[in-house]
Amino acid sequence: MKEKSIYCLLPTPLRLKRRHFIFLTSAGIAAIGIPVLYSKLGSIEFPQLLAQPELLESIWDRDTISGIGQAYLETHPSEDRQNRLVKLLYQDIPQDKVDAGQIAEAIKRDFQAGDLVEVDGWILSRTEARQCALFSLTSS
Amino acid sequence: MHIDARTLENNTIIEGDICIVGSGAAGLSMALDWLNTGHKVILLESGGFEYENRVQDLGQGTSSGQTYYPLRACRLRYFGGTTGHWAGMCSPFDNIDFVKRDWVPHSGWPISRQDLDPYYERAHKVLQLGPYIYELSHWQQTFPTFEALPLDQDVIWNKMWQFSQARYIHEYKDTIVQASNIHLYTHANVINIEANESVSSINRLEATNYAGNSFSVKAKQYVLACGSIQNARLLLASNQQAPNGIGNDHDNVGRYFMEHLEVACAQLWLNKAYSTDLFKWPAEPNTPRAELAITEQTQIAHKILNGTSSFASLAGRLARKSRMEIWQDQDSRKNMENMKNMYASGHEASQQSEGPLQRAYQLSVRIEQAPNPNSRISLGTDKDEFGVPLVHLHWDLTELDKRSIRTIYQIIGQQVGIAGIGRVRLDEFLREDAEPGFPDSTNGGWHHMGTTRMSDAPQNGVVDANCQVHGLSNLFVAGAGCYSTSGAPNPTLTLVALSLRLSDYLKGKLS
C-alpha cells in the first residue's frame, strides 16, 4: 500500500512495478551470462544483449524501457525498423564482440562525445536509446 | 543602550557620529564593529524585540511578473531582522561572480573576491561559523564519510557550505543594549531622507514613533541597512528634493532586483547505492555539506550563469509542494509552520521508499539571477500608516536564467553518464519542447538583492565600490542590495563581509 502511494506520484512512464523490476533484473543477469541470439523471419540475427540497456534495467521496468524506446522512435522515424537499428548499433559496437563491456564502452563514448538524446526528459546516450528502441520493437 | 522611540517627545533631535538604519544582519554586524570605539552610533530599528503585526504591515506590497511570496511575509521587522528565522546557509561567492562576463549583461563588480576575503574571515566570527575554509579536502579530514561522486573535477566541483546557528536577537541583544556608545532606538521608523539644497549630502533623517510623534536623526554618516527592498523604497520615497528619489538621478534605484532561483529541476537515479554524507543536510551544528557546482571554465564554455545543485530524496520531494506554493500566507510564522510540516511529511515518505526509488534524488538548482533592469522595485499607490508609499515588485526572469539551468543539468546528466553511476531526467519545464518561462511554483530563496547595485559609474548603478551612494558624500547602503550580480550562494555571509568592509571605510572617514 505504501509503495503504491509513492509510485503513483511518479510521471506515467516512470511508474515502477516491483514485480516487473525483479523479473527484469533477473532476466538481465541471466542474459549477461548466457548470450541469446534473437532472430525473426526476415530480420538480422543479433544477441539479445543488444536490446538490453543494462544500466537502465537497474532503474526501469520493461514497460518503461519499451515506452522510452517508442518515444525515441517517434522522434527518429528513420530508425523505426529492427534491421536499421541493429545496423546502427553495430556501427559503435563490434559485431563479433557483443558483450556487456563493449556496450558499456560505446555508451560511455557517447556521453564523452556528447552524442546524447533527450527522451521524456531522460538524458541518454544514443546507443542506449537505440537499445530501448530495439527492445520495444522486439518485445511488441 | 536601548531607547524605545515610542517614548520620544515630538520634534526630538538625536545626534551621533554614524546612523545605521536597520538592525538585521547588515546593520547589526556593522554596529557590533563599532563597539567601544568612542564614536556615538545611532541604530534605528522599526520593530522591537519580537514579532508585531503592526510593524510587519509596514512591509506589505504588491507584485507582478513571476509569482512571488507575499512581501509582508518575506522579512522579519524586529531586532536581528531575518536572522530570526534563517536557515544559516553560508558560502562565499566565487571569483567569477565578481568579473564581467560578456554573456551576462550588466555583470561585473567594481571589486573582486580578493577585496572581500579578509572580510569574509571576519564575517565568519560574527556569524559564528567554523574556519574560513571551503576546500573539500580540508573537511574530509574531519569527516571521512564525505566521499565525492566520481565526476570529472574539471567540469563539476563540490562547493562547500557551512551553517550558522546565529540568531542575532539571541546572540547580540544584550551586547548592544549594554554598549555605552551604541544607541539602539526600537520602534523608530525613518520616513524621509532629507538632503542639502544641492542634494550632495544628507542633512537629517526624518522618523516617526508610532505614537504620532516625529523626530530627527542627525549624523556625520548615514547607512541604510534595512533590506534591499526597504532601502530602495526609502530612497525612492524621499522625493521632496529629488523628484525621482535620493540617489536616483539615473533611474537605477529599485532596478536589477535579483533573487536566487531555488528550483527542483531534475531527477538523479543511481544504478546502485552510493555511500556518502557529503551532500546530506547536516543533522548536527558545525557540520558542513556540499553541492555540485559547475567549474568556471565550463561556465565560460557554455556561457551560463553560476549555479549549484543540491540533492534530496526523490520520494520525499514528490510528497511535497514547492515552497512558493506553501509560503503564501501574510504571516511568516504560519508559513514557517506549514513548511516544517511539509518537510516532515516529505521525510516520512523518503523513509518509506523502496526499490530503485531509494536511490533516486531530486536535484534542485541554486543559481544567480541574471541582472535585469526590468526586474524591479517601484513605489505603489497605497501607503503605510505613516504615509510612505508601499512597494511594488515586478520579478522578471530571462531566457538566460532558464537556459543556464537547463544547461547545468545537461552537464550534470552528461557527467553522470560518463561516470556510469546513473541517469538524469530533466523536469518538464526544462525539457527541449517545454514552453518558455518558469512555472508558478518556481521558488526564490527569499533573497532580495541588487536594488541599489554597485557600479563604477553613476549611470550604471546606485552605490560605488565603497557602498557610498553616487553623488551623496555621507549616504551609504549596507546589504545585498549592493550586489552587482547575485552569485549562487545565499547572500548573508557576503552581505556581512561587505558591511564590515564598509564599516572599515567609515572608520577611516571619521578618524
Give the radius of gyration of chain A: 15 Å
Assembly type of the chains comes to: heterodimer
Order of helices and strands of chain A: HHEEHHHHEEH
| Largest interface, chains and sizes | A-B, 30 and 34 residues
Helix content bin of chain A: 55-70%
pLDDT averaged residue by residue of chain A: 78
The helix tally of chain A amounts to 7
Provide a count of the helices of chain B.
Answer: 13
- Note the gap between the termini of chain B: 23 Å
Question: Stretches of chain A where pLDDT falls below 50 for ≥5 residues?
Answer: 1-34
Distance from N terminus to C terminus of chain A (CA atoms, Å) equals 30 Å
Number of strands of chain A: 4
Range of helix content of chain B: 25-40%
Structural Rg of chain B: 23 Å
Set down the secondary structure blueprint.
The complex is a heterodimer of chains A (140) and B (511).
Chain A: H1 2-7, H2 18-33, E1 37-38, E2 46-47, H3 54-57, H4 62-75, H5 82-92, H6 100-113, E3 116-119, E4 122-125, H7 126-139
Antiparallel strand pairs in A: 1-2, 3-4
Helix pairs in contact in A: 4-7, 5-7
Chain B: E1 2-4, E2 12-21, H1 25-33, E3 41-44, H2 53-56, E4 61-65, E5 89-90, H3 95-98, H4 113-126, H5 136-142, E6 156-163, H6 168-178, E7 182-186, E8 189-195, E9 202-208, E10 214-224, H7 228-237, E11 261-270, E12 289-294, H8 296-302, E13 307-313, H9 314-318, H10 323-326, H11 332-352, E14 360-367, E15 376-383, E16 389-395, H12 399-419, E17 422-426, E18 475-477, H13 492-510
Parallel strand pairs in B: 1-7, 2-3, 2-10, 3-7, 4-16, 10-18
Antiparallel strand pairs in B: 5-6, 6-12, 8-9, 9-10, 11-14, 11-17, 12-13, 13-14, 15-16
